[in-house]
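User: Please predict the structure of the protein below. I'd like the answer in structure-token form so I can feed it into my own downstream comparison script.

Assistant: Understood. Taking the following sequence of 104 residues as input:
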Amino acid sequence: MIIEKASEQNTAELADTDILAADITSTQTASIFRVMVAMSVAGIFRADITKAGNSQVMSFNSGVNLVADCLYTFEHLVHASDSINYQYSVNATLRVLRVQEVVE
């Protein structure tokens, strides 16, 4: 089953700040978030993962800049008590962000 968790398009984003207005969480214990993203300028796309008040910001794509105006797809694990948001390393226009929860 696929559940839509977030859908953003054509929004101005500030460097190192949360992209989504509110964190998202998993519907079921231990699921996978599939993330599709494209940004207007090169930079590093990151997940902000919070569990029990402890926040860790982790880079996708091995910490290598995404190419401007190119579409990328990433997946990451999410556990029941995790809350998730996303950030970008530079000021940019978010072309598209789609987050789906994949549950079995």
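That's the full token string. The chain has one domain: 2-102.
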